[in-house]
Amino acid sequence: MLTELRIRNFAIIESLSLPLARGFNVLSGETGAGKSIIVGALGLLLGERASADLIRTGADRATVEGVFDVADRPEIAVLLDERGIDAEESFVVLKREIVAAGRARAWVNGTTVSAAILAEVGRLLVNLHGQHEAQTLLDPDAQRRILDAFAGATDSASAVRDAYDTLAHARRDIASLQRRRADAEKRADYLRHVVNEIETAKLTDGEDVRLEDEARRLENAEELRELSTGIVECIEGEEESALQRLASVERLLATIQRVDPTLARLQELYDTAYYSLEALAREMTEYEASVELDPERLEEVRRRRDLLFRLTKKYGPTLGDVLEANRAARAELDLVDSADFDLRALEERERSAAQALQDRSAALSALRAQASERLGRAVDEVLPDLGIPDGRFHAALMPLREIGPDGAEAVEFRVSLNVGHEERPLARVASGGELSRVMLALKTILARLDRVPTLVFDEVDAGIGGRVGLQVGETMRRVASYHQVFAITHLPQIAARAHHHILVSKGARGGVTTADVAVLEGDPRTAEIARMLGGDPESEVSRAHARELLDTAAALAADSAPAPTVRGARRARK
Questions:
Q1: Is the pTM here over 0.90, yes or no?
Q2: Cβ contact 301:218 at 8 Å
Q3: Which of the four, 223, 230, 231, 360, has the lowest number of CB atoms within 10 Å?
Q4: How far apart (Å, rounded) are the C-alpha atoms in residues 566 and 154?
């Protein structure tokens, strides 16, 4: 649950710490005092869009921080651990900061995270229900999800979607194969020409480079032989050759070594040079012999290069591209021959996927049909407590022409809110206040199923008053048996039913408007209820009316409290 919400420099709030407790918490105050700003700060903490416009005048940054007790929610610790976030304590601290430059940062337990991860964690901790969220009840997808949650069919619905995706994928593969086969059949003559032209050439990878080198040698064969002969002559010719000159060097080296024996090491250098020149002369002699004056081979190489040039011009620009064109054309031709076999395999896969979708959607439809009846009865039982005594609710299942990703039927919430009126789609019948109460009825019923520990209601009392307000307050108090409930309200009937009452007031500090909060108990709470009743909070009549509301709420709470267990009774007597 949310134990504390700390806000600094957000909108008109300078510094505020909002203490919350288990059970039913209400926030009240004059219009414009800052109640909705607090909800907006909580929304920011849960990953909603950040804007520098939210920073308080004169400040350079705004921060919102929430402390959550998650001792009874081990799955949250698992999620944090998977995201690399420290989760050793039984508390989770979310923090969001906006700076004037427009940047926003987020932390979970001191670890910097993205807004997406902050929102992911926040969704497990808080369900924020504003006035506009009642409108989600008009969305068919939202209606379907609510019914599936009540039916315990969320996993079954996911299985149907998976089966649908598998079937759709198989059908896409079939269509793609059929399209490619049809294209290949249209292009078969051209493809055969491509394959025949390239395969007849018997190309080898890298052949163009080898032919280039060979052509260069053949075209310059005479010059290459002359150069080779010249090199050999310079090394070991009869007059003034390199080896003859080295003989003189050897004699001089022997003389200097006799005078200075330490130069004996130079002999090895001389020998290396001499033998290297001899080896070079042999290599050049062999090379000269290998260079052939072969006009016929040169012509053959030129013809081959011309062939490669034409093919690369046509299918290139490189020889590798030509070979790839042959491979692709061959594969397309093979497709004409093998498509029937592949299609049979794909069609078998399609039949199997279609059967799986049929089976899974049938199971989902059965769960929805059972849940539709139970949900209708459950909502009908709650509606009178919310001021709609003649209300009737029906989660209608409308079969689709074919099974879709969400199953074999659409879900439509229908209501009849008055005697003698036929049921109609919720969107065509309910006013804003009635819509909020239908949403609250559903929240009440789903409370035990919903694992989110904190429910926040922002002015769910819009459009209601009087006795209906008392009933709505009592309903929210019952929901608080399973969740921490935090409601922003203008109705004294709802505020009187709360376990904890917090007042938001607006004042000024340093000439700048700010908002403060105070936990109300005793006389201050009586005064606030009197104010909300519309009378003078100092009037004894208004205070008496306020005390009556509070006393009535306390009596109802005592009457609805569960009887103590034997162990609890013994402990009480002790």
A1: no
A2: yes
A3: 223
A4: 39
**7 Cβ contact list (under 8 Å, min separation 6):** 13, 15, 16, 17, 18, 38, 41, 63, 64, 65
- Those residues with Cβ within 8 angstroms of residue 14's Cβ, 6 or more apart along the chain or in another chain: 8, 56, 509, 512, 514
Q: Provide the 3-class DSSP secondary structure of residue 456.
A: strand
Residue 571 has pLDDT above 60, yes or no: no
CATH class of 2-130+432-520: alpha beta
SS3 breakdown of the chain: % helix, strand, coil, rounded to 5? 60, 20, 20
Q: What is the mean pLDDT of residues 84-101?
A: 87
- Phi and psi at 535, nearest 5°, equal -100, -170
The first and second tokens of residue 321, run together, are 């591209």
User: How many C-beta atoms surround the C-beta of residue 148 within 10 A?
Assistant: 22
Q: Say what the pLDDT of residue 562 is.
A: 41
- 329 C-beta neighbours (distance < 10 Å), count: 23
CATH 3.40.50.300 region(s) of the chain? Answer: 2-130+432-520
Structure tokens at 150: 């009540």
Closest CA to 61 of 118, 101, 32: 101
51, 56, 61, 62: CA torsion to nearest 10: -70
